Amino acid sequence: MQKDSEVRRGEWEARLADIKYMIHLFRKNPLVMTGTIISLFFIIVALLANFIVDPRLATTEGYTGGSYPFERKYMWSANHPIVWGPDIALHDGPEFFYLGTDGWGRDLLSMIILALPVDLYNAFIIVVVAALLGTTLGALAGYAGGIFDEAVLRITDVFFAFPGLVLALVFASMFGRSIETLQFAIILVWWPPYVRLMRGQVLSEKEKPYVEALKALGAGHLRVLFRHVMLNAIYPILVQATMDLGGVILTFSALMFLGFSPSKSLPELGNLAADGYNAIFSAPWVILFSGLTMLIISLAFNLVGDGLRDVLDPRLRR
Amino acid sequence: MKLYEYIIRRLILLVFVLLAVSVLIFYLTRGFERGFAPWAPYINEKMTAEQIEEVIKAHGFDRPLHEQYFYWFRDVFNGEWGLTGTWGLGLPANRVFFNRFPRTVELAVFATILTISIGIPLGIISAVKNNKLPDHISRIIALAGYSTPSYWFGFLLQLVFFYYFSLWGLPNLPSSGAPSIATRITGLPILDGLLTGNLGFVWNEFVHLILPSISLSFISLGFLARIVRASMLEVLRQDYITMARSKGLRERVVIYRHALKNALIPAVTLTGIFFASLLGGAMITEYVFSWPGVGQAALLAVGQGDSNFILLYSLVFATIIVLANLAVDVAYAFLDPRIKY
Fold this sequence. Notes:
The complex is a heterodimer.
Chain A: H1 4-28, H2 30-52, H3 108-144, H4 146-160, H5 164-174, H6 179-190, H7 192-205, H8 209-216, H9 221-232, H10 234-260, H11 269-277, H12 284-312, H13 314-317
Helix pairs in contact in A: 1-12, 2-3, 2-12, 3-4, 3-6, 3-7, 3-10, 4-7, 5-6, 7-9, 7-10, 10-11, 10-12, 11-12
Chain B: H1 3-30, H2 49-58, H3 65-77, E1 83-84, E2 91-92, H4 93-128, H5 133-147, H6 150-167, H7 189-196, H8 199-236, H9 239-246, H10 251-263, H11 265-279, H12 283-288, H13 294-304, H14 307-335
Antiparallel strand pairs in B: 1-2
Helix pairs in contact in B: 1-14, 4-5, 4-8, 4-11, 5-8, 6-8, 7-8, 8-10, 8-11, 11-14, 13-14
């Protein structure tokens, strides 16, 4: 008879082989690899943003109109005297500035780099919280069934019938302008799809023989649900969450663009775009590059998510 | 469950959804003091302090929130949606809404037509040339579509087709706004223009619609193309397609006559939902192009904390979405006889 540990090892080897095969498939797809590399690049730049660019650019501290007041300068222009003030606002001369300056006279490339951590961090927080909330509720609803299931479904009905952006806007404008409000507003709109997704997964998963076997072995409901059923149903959630990262960045910056930003000088892509929108024809580069950055980040996450779906769903592997 | 039982069940649910939406929005917009006071649209400078007091009393603005809700509910039941203060004067919210609604409908129709006519062929090509170059290109277009910030794409269109075209002396498209309405018969400006024979107006309106429609459809045609591709791939694996091929039918006939019909069922749902959501007004696109529809109005109203207008807007929109979902479900049952409710 096989020992318990041997069975477990065999299980692990099978799982490992599966993961290796997935990685192989993943690497075979050029689009997905491009997406992965681009998203990793942006994540690394975001993590290092405060070392690449002087973070004090983001504050109004330096907005004096005089010469650049800080000792640490932009990494790529260390030898140039940098002037930062209204007299060089919306300036596109190639002397010091690679992408021109924004409406405050700050180097746009630096501002975009400073905006990356803000956007990525917020998108990450929002997606993680929304996904955790949605999947937990969905799993409980699907597993428990009955009145609880019905109640959760009806609540999601209300949110699905809702103009998502309107709710977020109303929420954000009523609770005052702060990053936390925006996070909460977007989470409020973003969790219901996860409920539906996880609930559907759990409903089909809980009829499988292994659940019965686990129960026969004496496993409790919570253990069955959280240790086994949810783990087996997690793949579509991962795909959804990856793709949502892109969508949330767009929504977050759209709210900022529409004027729900806590401060106009905050380095955030939507904020920069709004800044550029005021000078749309005289200084098109501001909105052009801030929007392009959003497009590239969001596209990269979507490519990864799209590839993950093909890889994780055995029916689409072919 | 019979189909009509299902429909009735869903309609009853709609009532609860609307109640929940109205309570949520009511508390959010009246519970916080943002923008103008809820009674501001009802008063004017000529009123004395007592008259103002009277107005506030009559509409229950001095009561606690839950009582105010019932006042609002009672008025709505009598067909009065209250006054809105966003546009300066105290205009009835429903008049503002339904004056602007036709413009939103126009934009939704144009954008949907554009989405279907590009998205479906793109999806078919993707599926037929699966994992070859055309599939990769269509995948990139699709993904780029829903990764693009809508306002940014709108801006690009304005910059190129309005600003640069006029700089280069080319015939350029208007960047924003809409022509003012000459005559009103049905309410839909283009239809009215055609009815009165005012072709200049029709052309003007059409030209103003082009850029916002492109902007809207670019974002959603990707979804449609991906859905069509997925369902087409699913259908092409079915036995009856193998059967059709082994009968010796040409590939073109197999795809367009046999596969496409079944593969388009999910596309019908998606298009229905898409159209419904556009009827709610594409807020950002309408804002960027200054298109005078309900989406732009709602955005203005939210900024002012205009609770009467936001309530009306959310309720109409929620109704449209729920009914569209229902219509799509019913259409599904007709298109695919295997589906039972």
